[in-house]
Specification:
By secondary structure, the chain is mainly β. The strands form 2 sheets. An 8-stranded mixed barrel has the order 1-2-3-4-9-10-8-7. The protein has a two-stranded antiparallel sheet with strand order 5-6.
């Protein structure tokens, strides 16, 4: 695989994640998924704090977030013809994806993982992503048998029109991870209005 980095993802968000399919199609539910509080955000994630040494390259195959009961396989994602990050099939509610032309989780740089918040049948893999707190653990199982362990630095929500591409997708000098789903305001006519983004950095491996 030829790594092209995240620079190819320009001025786009994971908008295909954000139709709000469950809420749009359900006559019985009107509640939206949890959103991060201001206390979980940060102007900039901590880029100077302690980090574990980078791991050798290995594709990821699973993501686990124990505090919100996520345990899901990962598929490779590419860019669409419009230059936006593609998304996993919506019909599989327990599936997430990683940007396979970019950084592998555990390598130096910014690795990208994305998944749906819901589908037509109900909550999907990252429905509770906005409930994560700073200090939470994200585990990425890798194809070489190792597990990259990340600690959450911040959880933020952005309106689509103000999505900070450089902050989310930009290069990092240590192993970092972004986990993205949809969130923000919700409209039954247009779906979710933005994205929830988790910022994390590598703090261990096993």
């Amino acid at each position: 695989m030829h790594k092209v980095g995240n620079a190819a993802i320009a001025s786009v968000t994971a908008v295909s994640l954000c139709s709000g399919a469950w809420l749009l199609h359900s006559a019985y539910r009107s509640d939206a998924p949890p959103q991060p509080s201001a206390a979980q955000g940060a102007v900039e994630p901590d880029r100077e704090g302690s980090a574990a040494p980078a791991l050798p390259p290995s594709p990821p195959d699973r993501i686990r977030i124990p505090s919100i009961h996520v345990d899901a396989p990962l598929m490779g994602l590419r860019l669409t013809s419009a230059g936006s990050l593609d998304v996993p099939p919506a019909d599989d509610k327990n599936l997430a994806g990683w940007y396979e032309a970019g950084t592998m989780p555990g390598e130096t740089g910014t690795a990208i993982v994305a998944g749906h918040v819901d589908n037509t049948r109900g909550p999907a893999v990252f429905y509770d992503l906005g409930a994560l707190s700073k200090g939470s653990t994200i585990e990425i199982g890798r194809r070489d048998g190792s597990t990259a362990v990340f600690t959450v630095d911040a959880v933020e929500v952005y309106a689509a029109r103000n999505f900070p591409d450089d902050k989310v997708y930009g290069a990092a000098g240590r192993p970092e991870l972004r986990v993205i789903t949809c969130g923000g305001g919700y409209s039954k006519t247009t779906g979710y209005q933005g994205n929830v983004v988790v910022f994390a950095h590598l703090t261990g491996s096993r």
